[in-house]
Amino acid sequence: MNAFLDAWTWLTTAEHWAGPGGIWTRLGEHLYLTGVSMVIACLLTLPLALWLGHTPVASGGGGRGKRLGSAVAVNITNAGRAVPTFAVLVVLMLTPLGEGGVTTPTVIALVLFALPPLLTNAYVGAAEADPDVVEAARGMGMSSRQLMLRIELPLAFPMIMTGIRTATVQVVATATLAALVGGGGLGRIITAGFANQNTAQVVAGAVLVAALALVVEGVLVGAQRLLTPGRRARVRGGGGGGELPPEEREDGARAVGAPAGAA
Amino acid sequence: MSASNCLTANAWICGEYLRTRREELVDATLQHIAITGTAVVLAVLLAFPLALLARRYRRLTGTVLTLTTVVYTIPTLAMYALLLPVFGLSASVVVCGLVLYSLTILVRNMLAGLDGVPEDAREAARGMGFGPGRLLFRVELPLALPALMAGVRIATVSAVSLTTVGAIVGNGGLGNLIYSGMDSLFKAQVLTASVLCVVLAVVADVLLLVLQRALTPWARARDGGGRGRRRGGAPGPGDGGHPPDGGAGAVPPGSGGDTDPLAKPAGDDRPIAAGAPGARQEADR
């Protein structure tokens, strides 16, 4: 396990942290790529997912959007798993988009990668809003719009947060691949280590990325708890855990996570 | 003429490329299949005893699930990099990384599948004098098969996609072609290899689905009339709650901090089983 001791030495060397190619810079680049991609992905997906999961006031339950939504949710998740992000990234690099630099292709690839978990979770959250509550809201004379914004959105919130969390962790992990096409981020430490045949650096970079992914996961779990008041109480009251009743999902549309490092 | 010119013109789609580099493509595809196949087979062989252990010793379940979740959070590139000092520059790095990722999915799905076996079926088998071994292989395993196969399908499709990153250690199958194509800006090579990769994933998925159908003829027979019955099924341990805290139900493998993993396997797995007959089977208890 000498390699890991060497990696520790590499990590604790102050000069590796400072400077333009230092760990702090790479960390900043990594977070920037993740942040931009996640914001774009959320803006693209969440309204669409809410619309797809919306129960129209006039309908008796499953509207056209809902049926379309479950089809989209299942297929986009399966497709997302089969398409390697690395391949998407390289293909984008060779298109005119790649001429302006690495950032645009990377962000596009990451956004595409973040779409499935975001869309699926938010859709399931909105579509599975307690039918009794939706019914009651409709009985109170709420319009479609009010129903969507004041009932379905809040009820879907925990699921939306779960989707954001999954997607963010995956994007943090996958942003590493930017380094393979010459972009920034923590992956650069790994690829630079490969180039110099410096195993200590490779392992150090890997530890950094893995640690960042775990930290982000932890922070988002915390944020989710804080932002969703009453969550704990409900979980406790829920008996066997607040899981979705499987029988409600004929289509199998569910929140799905792909491997964090999915390439 | 235009066909042979597409190489010099660096076109995205090029028949000439397919003809002249055929061997290279076949080799890369075969390596891709070999790496993915080895990894998934090893993972299945390892996941089985692990799932049985986790089931036998309930206290282990939480630990196993947490561990596999952590593994899932490690980025592919980092995973291969971490395994590098252990194996050196070889295909073992990629295979081992893929095994670890696949284990995550498989152990969860096997646990969920085994948990989903109706207690009645177990009781009946015991009443018929089945020992633990026969009970497992003749009753529980066949009943858990759809959930298990759903896991295998997802693990395989993910593994096909993750293998490409193995290019960083020179063993990425089609990923190697993508990687070298990127350096030489060879568009036809990059696109062809990428498309082959997706095709490979889809074909593997379909083949496994066919295998699953062949292995579980009873599920097919029930598919026709099962829909209505499913809804009336008695709620099992994990089925009770309402969606309010959708969080738990939708927790994907990549979510570490959630409490009480013991309560999770059933619900936690269905995401993995999405869209697959496995979900159907599980829901049927």
TrEMBL record, chain A:
Chief localisation class: membrane
A single Gene Ontology CC term: plasma membrane
Intracellular or extracellular location(s): Cell membrane; Membrane
UniProt cross-references to PROSITE patterns, sorted A to Z: ABC_TM1
Statement: the UniProt record of this protein carries the keyword Transmembrane: yes
Signal peptide as annotated in the record: none
TM region(s), chain numbering: 31-52, 72-95, 107-127, 171-190, 202-223
GO BP annotation list: glycine betaine transport; transmembrane transport
Keywords noted in UniProt: Membrane, Transmembrane, Transmembrane helix, Transport
InterPro entries to which the protein is assigned, alphabetical: ABC_transp_perm/SBD (IPR051204), MetI-like (IPR000515), MetI-like_sf (IPR035906)
Pfam families xrefs: BPD_transp_1 (PF00528)
Biased composition (Low complexity): 254-263
Its membrane topology: Multi-pass membrane protein
All residue ranges annotated as the ABC transmembrane type-1 domain in the record: 27-220
Family listed: Belongs to the binding-protein-dependent transport system permease family.
Record PANTHER family: GLYCINE BETAINE/L-PROLINE TRANSPORT SYSTEM PERMEASE PROTEIN PROW, POSSIBLE OSMOPROTECTANT (GLYCINE BETAINE_CARNITINE_CHOLINE_L-PROLINE) TRANSPORT INTEGRAL MEMBRANE PROTEIN ABC TRANSPORTER PROZ
Identification of the protein by name: ABC transporter permease subunit
Species, as recorded: Streptomyces lonarensis
Lineage: Bacteria, Bacillati, Actinomycetota, Actinomycetes, Kitasatosporales
Automatic annotation (TrEMBL), chain B:
Highest taxon of the lineage: Bacteria
Skewed-composition ranges (Gly residues): 233-257
Pfam families xrefs: BPD_transp_1
SUPFAM superfamilies named among the record's database cross-references: MetI-like
Membrane topology: Multi-pass membrane protein
PROSITE patterns: ABC_TM1
GO biological process terms held by the UniProt record: glycine betaine transport; transmembrane transport
Keywords: Membrane, Transmembrane, Transmembrane helix, Transport
Residue span of region Disordered: 220-285
Family: Belongs to the binding-protein-dependent transport system permease family.
Protein name as annotated: ABC transporter permease
Origin species: Streptomyces lonarensis
